[in-house]
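Researcher: Here's a chain I'd like modeled. Treat it as a single chain, no partners, no ligands.
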Amino acid sequence: MSVSDSCEAAPEKRTLSSLLAGRVAKRPKREDAGGLQQAAIQLLEQQQNICALLREVGDTDPWDVLHTRNGEQKPTGGVPSAASAALLVRELRRRAGRLGVPAAALSVTMVVERLKEIVGEGEDEARGLLTSSQRVQLCGLLESSRELLSRGALCPKLLWQEYRRDQSVPDLEVVCHLHFYNILTLRHIIESDEDARPWLVSQLKALCGWTPARGGEETKKMLSTVVGVLVGSGFELSPRPAAADRKAQLLCCSALDDLLFWLLDTVERGPMPRCAAAELWLEVFDASLCGVSASGEALQRFFTHSLTQTLTYKPQLTVSDAVALQNEWTFAKSNALLTSLFRKLAVVFGVEQLLRHLRQVLETREVNWKHVLCFLSTLLVCNPGAQLRLRELLSGLLSSAFEGYDLESMITAFLLARQGALEGPAVFPSYGSWFKMSFGGGGGPHAASKKSLVFLLKFLSDLVPFEPPQYLKVHILQSPYVPVKHRSLLMEYVSLAKTRLADLKEPVEDMGLYEDVSGEGAASLQGQAVQDVEKAVSLFESTGRISATVMEASIFRRPYFLTRFLPALLRPRTLPVQADARTSFIEALRKADKVPAAQYSQYVESCQKRRHEDAGAACSDTDDEPVEALSVQLQELTQLLDEASEGELSARLSRIAHALSAVFPGGPVELPGRRATVVDVILRSFCQCVINASRAKPPNKQSSWASMFVGTLLGNAQLLSALVHRLRDLFRNQASSLGAAHQLGLAALAVHLHAGAPRGPPVRLPGPVRVDEALSSALVCGTRAGMLFCVRLCVAALSYGICRGDAVPPEQRQNYVLSGFYKKSGVPAVGLLGALPAPSGGAGRLWRRHEDPLLSPAPRRHGPAAEELVYEMQVTDLRHGTARPGVCDLLLESASRRCASSAPAGGSAELGLQRALDAWNRVVLALPAALLVKVKPDGGGATLEVDALVEHVNRLQRRACSPVGLLSCHLTSHFLRGLLCAGARCGRPGEEVNNAWSQISVCCPLLLVSAAHWWERLSPVLSSLWRRLCDGELLPAQLQLLEDCRTWACRLEEGQLLPAAPAAAAALLLAASLHRAWRGSVSGGRGLSELHRQVLVFLLFLCVKDHLSSLLDPQEETPRGAASAALCSDLLLALVDCADWLLLFHPSERGVYQPIAAVMSDQFARLMPWAFYSLLLRQSDELRRRAARSPASSAPPSPATPACCGSSWREAWPNPSGERAAVIYFLFFWSGTTLGGKKRRVCFLRWSLSGF
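Model: Modeled as a single isolated chain. Structure tokens:
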């Protein structure tokens, strides 16, 4: 009941108006004013309706100035005009004065009352959000409140206190609108409200759980706003945060952690129906959504913190649990919410950063192993480049483990390697391959000492009680390298492992002969026996002998040989007319008395019965569920192709690989009906994907989806074999039924199968052959239709491969051209692409190319020298970066012989050398850089020997540089990478690299100048390589000196005060750095007078060299040539009064300037006087006179020097023309060793008379 209603019900009582009027009339004493004001405030605080109270006083509601009743707005649209806002403020202040209360207090009370009316009307608890009508009223109220705030008539702090007093849980939408209208910011609310964390977390959870019909955008906007403020307040760094800021920061972090834990609890509950609330909160981790109110640094810190919290959430599982249960934590089997969370948290980081952070967490925190391993799987599946980084991490962990005998690093390395292997060979090598690579050779970390070996075997023994059987089999079949004297230690472990396998009812007798355990577990016993038979037949076919493994199994593993191997080998089949490899292998075993007579007789009888049976009866599988699931996933992949990222494609293909493993689990290789259906489904899906992708972009602009798709197929040997056999059948027998789309798709598939063949198992027909040979042999050109199909398919495959090759590095492009198809086409690819019709009109336009740089040069790239190198590399173990010392000598000696034999006699010798060396450089760039530098054993360590490399550069590369005196960037980078890779194999890498580069700097000026010239491009590459090779170390000091010189030259070029040159830098290095910094610069030449004389002389040489290049090739002259000429003028002006510059033209007496002789070829050196004379003609008469008067005492005249060329030669030509002739003759005199006497005089007369 309102106050006015109370007055109507009791007329005998005085109304509030009369009471107030009476008090005004009585004019209370001054001491009563305070009490009266206190009474008025108490009255306002008793939950009274202020609007009704003011109406009782006799005035209208001040809010009616802007709004009508029932939320209907006036035509102002809810935005008060200046006049109405001023009127409202005056009215509020007038009535506040009559009530004796502050105007701000009165406005706050009225706003809160109105806020309660709006929010309370039509409240729907199930819906949670305001209706559109309520939202319009709320916006109008807040617009008016903002006007009051701007005029000082509203107190935000008091507004929150009054609103919070009656709200145990504030309405999140109201709070967000207060933030939107800048009345009360969320940051202020969080800092001032001590209970903000509980209600904020509960409201956010409720908001995620609401599913409004039209409130999706409002929900996301509110989430983005709140989370952005929480991230900004919780993770922004300030130099000296105050106590209040620190408290607010902790509160925000805690609130975000509570919501993350709520999401992880949802994940922990296991398989359950789709949780819309958790999925909605997961969208918060989109960088574009939560980064609106936070900086990039704060966002990265938030994602790092969230990743750490996820990896360490509820660390209840032990290491033994992880070893036993790891097989269930793959990407395909993990909760989709968890993998999505990891993908979103990883999006703002690089793979190297993520793995570095993972290692830091593993070393410093207790972790949830399920989350850690699931995170690793997600990273590997969604980032194709993660495999290399993981290998580096595993190598570092093993090094740390054996250096300090650290069990934690050891178990971490094993768990991470196994987790990678669980994702399949397309993602990471199998566990057997990794174990063999890490411990199978004498260079492994365990082979350094007996203590290291005991450490490894003790570790493996401790794991035996928890190990899954497939890993025990790997350790037995591919046992670590152990010296003979310690063999007993290994046999103790093998005995223990065999006992454990027997307890698990998987005795060692049932292990395969050539078992290669994949990450997902071993194949079935029958399937493994089939694989053993295939391997044994393949080895017999290639060697003509029964392998030692089979012979040993027939003696020492007789139960497996008789009950598993022989039944798989003697499986009944229709025998071929001509004996194949399998039949010959069986006969060889029978002659060696390895096949029981009764078993062989039964096999022959069964084969004869099989011949008479109906071969058309095919085995069918009624279980179509895996096939249907695979079909659905392939269809989703086809639809996802256009808009999916590479990570999403990897995730989808990982699940497809998991579905394929159910259809091809490792059993017999025949194609039952279900498997044939699966192969056809895969082929149709791939063709459709090719067509869809090619409609939008040509192959060279597409993502790597096709390579990833084929990589998934290559991980399953049975599937690959079935796929190739099906393609052969289509090409040979059903070519007429294949349409244009099928031909394009199958051509692209053949290209990618060929490109990925090195990563997959061999194809047997029945012997092992390459994929392109297997497919090209199925193309029959006996009829017109067959020939037309062959040409169309080959043209499509070649054009697709050439076009796709543009998207890969140059060294990999040849992998996308099928040599078998190229030969089968019968005509050059250029003619085919231009003349023959494509399978469809669109395909010809889509893949048409006007050049084929891959095909025509291919036959001439492989000469005898290249074949010799390839053979040398095949017999050299380069996988660990090691090489025989003779490889470097062989390589450089072969280059010398090849260049010598390719250079004809006469005037074309240099041209022949240029061509031979260019071809040789292409071969060198394709080889590992470590081959170029020799590692020489020295006592207990190793040193670098660069004499051969220095001689190669000085004797051959110097003569074929283009431009003159400068190696190409690729060649320079290759030489320096070879130096770093070789140095990393030494005991003291940094010291050895420093010593080697010091020698190169003195003995090989061309490589020094080239390194300084290209250093800006080489520095990031070499720094990254060195950090990877040496665990994060900085570049050696001698190479770091190159960076210091470049920085010094750049600062000098920018016009800064002359900085001090690096003290340890040689004058030639400083000059080369300045030459590069001033190259093409209009401001070059400043500060020359303050540089050392030797630096100026070397710089003059480099500039004259550039000018000579521009004179010899005028068509290539650029503004850089003009800049070099201008810089030469400045240098000559600075050096004209000294004699050092004359030494540039006197080869026999250069002294400290002798290195210039090894920078350019002798032919170019002979033309240097000509280039210098050309520069002199551009100078002023005064400068030429000063040059002619320059002292010549640095080099005494030759006995054959005319009198005019002695100390008084300058006086013989006082006129300009005579002066010019004197300079010419002087220069040719100083270069006397390069031109003979008669030839010198002839040149002198010709150039002098012609006036040049």
